[in-house]
Amino acid sequence: MDVFLPFVSLVFLSAGLGIDNGLLIEFSLKTLNLEPRKHLIWRSVALLMAALLRIVFLFSLSRLSFLERPLPDYAWLPNRWFSAHADELTWMSLVLFAGGLIILFMAVWEYYHKLRAEMDGPHHGETATETGTGRMLAVVFYLASMNILFSLDSVFAAVAIMDLDTQFGWMVAAILLASLVMVFGMIPISAIIAKNKHFGVLMLSILAVIATKLLVDGTGAHFSNGLLIFIIGILLLNDAAQAVIDRAAAKRKLRMAARQN
After folding, report:
1. Residue 76 and residue 251: Cα distance in Å, rounded?
2. What is the DSSP string of 54-93?
3. φ, ψ for residue 90, nearest 5 deg
4. In angstroms, rounded to a whole number, what is the distance separating the alpha carbons of residues 35 and 123?
5. What is the pLDDT of residues 150-183, one digit of tens each?
6. Cβ proximity of 199 and 192 under 8 Å
7. Which of 90, 69, 99 lies closest to 220 in space, CA to CA?
8. What global pTM score does this model have?
9. Residues 39/30, Cβ–Cβ less than 8 Å
């Protein structure tokens, strides 16, 4: 049970965070006008490569021994400003704190992006691209760059939920399982997200909670994984309850409209 709940939470969260990356891959590949079979193959390859990139980042974090060394006594290090245990901070504390800031920034940026998409339409900011090899190289470079950015939030989320030293194998398994979910469920998942836009806001709320845990851990304090999973569970239940209420309200409006007709 100590591993099961964090593992399931990480699979769900990795798949949820991978949705935007999956949609990015989907829309970028569509600009190449590939045959349906080739499009499917390249989309699957891109999703699996994104998962492998996350694993490489996790492995690198687990092998950097200097992260366990004490943090220098520099006043400009931000996590020292909020720490009551400054003498116990390590370089890993700084990495966690920086990860919290990165996730928080990406959550705000993604919220802004979604808001602009709703205000200006789903194709705002799109421009014509080159053709042939030039377009292919541009798409590959763009996807590689964005995959690195999208990998950061997933990696730091994994570090926040599970222990990097003792549960590394479980973290890798969760990321791979989530990538398989995306490979085989990209189309239906995209349809669900399109119909339930509040799900995207839910994922941003979960990211904010994860960022808070990383920031707290980065100052030498303790934010337990159990509390993190409990808060995520409450957010999920709240979103599910809101979805039920919205459906009930929609059905009531339909009944009232039918009676008036």
Report:
1. 57
2. HHHHHHHHHH-GGGGSBPP--TT-HHHHT-S-GGG-BHHH
3. -120, 175
4. 22
5. 677 778 778 888 888 788 888 889 888 888 887 7
6. yes
7. 90
8. 0.64
9. yes
